[in-house]
Backbone:
């Protein structure tokens, strides 16, 4: 099986390959770099599901126009949903502080907006990942994964995925960016959950 994963992020690619091994699938993973895809995709959906579908269908059109071989295209969208901010930043997570904002600028804006909610129980949040898979014949698979936790009152240390320095998963007392690999493996990871769901469906086909 040839899986086209709509990303150039090495961490995401490694996570998919690891999940493929766990699920016992025989699959080759190719990426946007492998197919020389550099078109701009306007992700203007109102939900993670809509944005991941927009991305997957744009890449499918590109592949079908150019005779690129694949069995399934998998595209993702996700972000941080903070309860006291009515689910924001949500689909705007990557551009919460503007199109070209740094990680520090994004996190400072988030923490500033949450100053009115200093207590742990008020700072609950959810990391979301939605994967949209579209097969050669047009059939689709959509899976959503979530990691629940809370937002800290200050940045622990910069690094990792954008919101990792301020996100403490349920059952833990440190941010994701502070965790060792062994500790992180014990977290119910939203991306892994979505990947396991979509690969599980592929095994049934």
Residues:
């Amino acid at each position: 099986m040839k899986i086209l994963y709509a990303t150039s992020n090495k961490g995401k690619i490694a996570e998919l390959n690891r999940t493929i091994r766990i699920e016992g699938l025989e699959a080759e993973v190719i990426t946007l770099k492998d197919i020389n895809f550099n078109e701009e995709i306007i992700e203007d959906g109102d939900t993670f599901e809509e944005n991941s579908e927009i991305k997957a269908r744009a890449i499918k059109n590109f592949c079908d126009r150019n005779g690129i071989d694949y069995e399934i295209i998998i595209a993702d969208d996700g972000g941080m949903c903070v309860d006291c901010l009515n689910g924001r930043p949500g689909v705007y997570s990557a551009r919460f502080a503007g199109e070209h904002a740094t990680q520090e600028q994004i996190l400072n804006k988030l923490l500033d907006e949450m100053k009115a909610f200093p207590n742990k129980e008020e700072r609950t949040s959810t990391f979301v990942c939605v994967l949209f898979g579209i097969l050669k014949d047009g059939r689709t698979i959509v899976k959503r994964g979530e990691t629940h936790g809370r937002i800290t009152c200050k940045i622990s240390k910069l690094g990792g995925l954008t919101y990792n320095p301020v996100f403490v998963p349920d059952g833990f007392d440190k941010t994701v960016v502070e965790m060792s690999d062994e500790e992180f493996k014990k977290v119910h990871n939203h991306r892994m959950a979505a990947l396991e769901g979509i690969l599980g469906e592929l095994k049934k086909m």
In short: The chain has a mean pLDDT of 92.
